[in-house]
Design goal:
Number of helices: 1
Helix content: 10-25%
Radius of gyration: 13 Å
Oligomer: single chain
Order of helices and strands: H
Number of strands: 0
Structural class: mainly alpha
Largest sheet: none
Strand content: under 5%
Amino acid sequence: IAGLEPAGLYVGSWSEWCADPKHEIATGEEE
């Protein structure tokens, strides 16, 4: 996809991915 390798497909929705606590999510500027 878009020439980027390796690429993966996440079967769940974006909200499902975000709800999983093992995925880190940036919420603002890093200090």
